[in-house]
Amino acid sequence: MSTTTRRQEKKKGVAESVANSDFDVNILHDPFENPNIDLKFPLPIDKETYVDVEDNYESLGQSFNILNSAIRMILGYGANYDEIYSKNEYKYFLNKHSDEFKTKFKNYMNSKLEKDDTKLDEIVYDLINQELNMKLIEAKDFKARFKEVKKYMVEFYKQNNEKNLPTFPSHNFVRSAYLTVMTIMRRLFPKGIWVSNQDISNLYQKYLEDPMSIIWTPSHQSHLDYIILHLICVRFQMATPAVIAGENLNVAVVGGLLKGLGAVFIPRTFNNELYTERNLNNVMEFLLINKIPFEVFIEGTRSRDGKLLLPKYGILKSLVSIYLKQRFEEHNPKFNMLFQPVAVTYERVYENDEFLKELKGDDKKQESLFGILSVAGSAFSNKKDVIIRDKQGFTDNSTRKLTGKIFLKLGESFTLERFIDNPEIRHEKDVNLKKLGFTILHEINRNSFLPEVSIVGTALQAYNYFANKAIFSVQELIPVYRIVVEALLRENESSKTNKIILQNMLKFSDAELSSLIIEQITNFFRHIKVNDTKNLIRIESPIELLYYKNLTIHLIIQRCLVMYIITLLNGTEHCNRRIIGKLFYILTGFLKNEFLFDYDENERNGMSFIIQDLTDLGVISKSKAEDSEYAIYTIDDPNFVRLFANLAQPFLESYVVLITNILEMTSNLASNYARAKQQQTHDQIILDDDELKYPTTKGLLKYIIAQSRKKAQFQSLESINKQYLVSDLYYLNNLQLIKIFKNKAKTKAFVQILNPRDLQVINRFLIQLLHVNTEEKNLLTDEINVNYVIDITNKNFERDIGELERVSKLRGSKI
Ligand SMILES: O=P(O)(O)OC[C@H](O)CO
């Protein structure tokens, strides 16, 4: 038997053993003949409807509709057309497509604006009061002016609602969309979209026990996320959700279709608009009272780098305040909602090529009708997908579409009542929103599937940093591959699927692993090439590895950091648990936004556990037997330590890149500003001269990327990408070392240095940490110095720089 066939046999074994647990359904399979997928339990049929909401209307019989008839005829799906989405609404969920519901929705929103929402009146009163105070109007005109402004506001928000709120046209509209989208998706993703029937069945059963709005909270890496969840709902006989979507998607024609499918368009930033947020709250409250499923991407934007982003709290805050209002003001004691974290994993994200450009500093291409049509159009190109090789025999994927499987895994769902777990709480400010967001995202990370390509990507990235070679043999990669698989397996105890796959991979022979690596590179990479005759790999642009490595990095980042620190201190008396612990504390602080370290309850991620584990593995050893915090550790397996330490490095480098450039750019701008100010006459004084004094966030990032690439200061390009830099920028803002603020027109954001001295201290600390042009280590090893850096990261503003300066002077070192 050939190795490939043996590997296929083993892979089949994996698929079979997984079949009863995870990823047993491809939702793109057989969608027309059998649109409804049977769940793992029989859906009840003894009642007409299972959702206890007033005014849940059954739709009238099929009305004649030319479009639907045409679709039936053209596509020839006649027989089962009426089966699609036939029981989802009215029977198991509220029928949001009934005319009665739509009228009720519209009336509800209009009467909120016209009379029911006192908040709007308050806003208008405040405004007119200001006009009065500024003598823009006279007291006698107050009432008339109030009426005029209120009328304007009501009209404005009515028009806004018309433009932005879901329209829920009809079940036939859902059916037509299903047929069209299915047809496109099947062509775009021939390898399927995989889910676990048991996951969906568990959720459905929980929902039926006590129907309430399911709040779907998926990870967000692609615009396809919304489509996928809708298709899943249709197929598993659940109601499609209303979806919070950025107004950037409300483009010609497509915006209308998306509204038909439940999109609630919102501004990307609210800029304290007085009533917009409240208006959105009203929309959400109406949907939740009616137990309509709701979908929100709490990261707020698509992650371009494979890791989860920090949650945005706006919508979570609204959900919590609606819950408390309903329970305690509207006396609706059973009101609740069910959060469902969802991990969506792509073997190759559709937007991959665009994301690489953005990471390298290009502006995002705005969504447009043309762009969306061309995606749909590309599904129908009849170009055969053949593997092309260049003259040297390496794969040339520059013109191939490169699509893979998509996997969707549900985490453990929980109700808001269970999360709050305190009947005394009445105010949203008493609810820990950060913990709510992090609970959702940790649950996503805990359940994220690791596709084979993510393991290949991690091994390639690790080896690339380790060996720094552009061309190497597949054979050279294999030992690294095995080490990576072992490390990931140790951190995947809780994921049944990942565990099985990784365990099986460890049993592969070298020849089987080679063929797996070659196959994955051929299928998914454009800038990493492979020659399957000579068994060679060529890395043309390592930035493509970043995404795949980051699909796994959250599992091992803490140990990478510990190994990084040990590498720095190895051979000195400082390589003890006390100093390692302090540095680990600082570095996990630096990377806490990048990796969502807060509220992580996994004890395997603690420093003591990791050190013990590395000792047990024989990677490091303790020189003294007793368990003192001063016992010195030494590295026994330098290659192992270096391999993982390297993976942590780019995240730290990106801080040095950022801070050095903020300092440089700000000082350049300051001297230009001083010069301009001298030449300025009184008449020229402008309203918003921050523009001249401070870099904009956007300008700064562009400058950094352009400058740093020229300087090639670090080995890895990974440290100079937009997503890491943005997240670092917000951490420095949080430490109040810099301030990010908007201009008066709220069109731009600026970066101002608030604490140049401590920004320098952090910069020097990082420079020593990364030993860039310096042998000094005093900021890493001297406890007074280290404690000062800890004070910065702890936001202890009482910190005493004097002591730091005295110590440095005494020892003749620079701060
Ligand atoms: O910020 P973007 O471009 O990732 O947009 C993603 C949002 O879902 C659009 O509403």
Please write out the topology.
Blueprint: H1 3-19, E1 25-26, H2 66-75, H3 78-81, H4 99-116, H5 118-133, H6 142-164, H7 171-188, E2 193-195, H8 197-209, E3 213-218, H9 224-235, E4 242-246, H10 254-260, E5 263-266, H11 276-289, E6 294-295, H12 314-329, E7 337-346, H13 352-359, H14 369-378, E8 406-410, E9 414-415, H15 416-420, H16 433-447, H17 452-467, E10 471-473, H18 474-490, H19 496-507, H20 510-524, E11 528-531, E12 536-539, H21 543-569, H22 577-590, H23 592-595, H24 607-616, E13 620-622, E14 633-635, H25 638-679, H26 690-693, H27 697-711, H28 722-734, E15 738-742, E16 749-753, H29 756-769, H30 778-781, H31 783-793, H32 801-811
Parallel strand pairs: 2-8, 3-6, 3-7, 4-5, 4-6
Antiparallel strand pairs: 1-2, 7-8, 7-9, 10-12, 11-12, 13-14, 15-16
Helix pairs in contact: 1-19, 1-20, 4-6, 4-11, 5-6, 11-12, 17-18, 17-21, 17-25, 18-19, 21-22, 21-25, 22-31, 25-27, 25-28, 25-29
Bound molecules: SN-glycerol-3-phosphate.
SN-glycerol-3-phosphate binds at residues 245-246, 248-249, 297, 301-302, 364.
Quick recap of the structure?
The chain is 53% helix and 8% strand. The protein has 815 residues and is α/β, with parallel strands linked by helices. It folds into four domains: 108 residues, Arc Repressor Mutant, subunit A (Orthogonal Bundle), CATH 1.10.10; 334 residues, Glycerol-3-phosphate (1)-acyltransferase (3-Layer(aba) Sandwich); 47 residues, no CATH class; 190 residues, Four Helix Bundle (Hemerythrin (Met), subunit A).
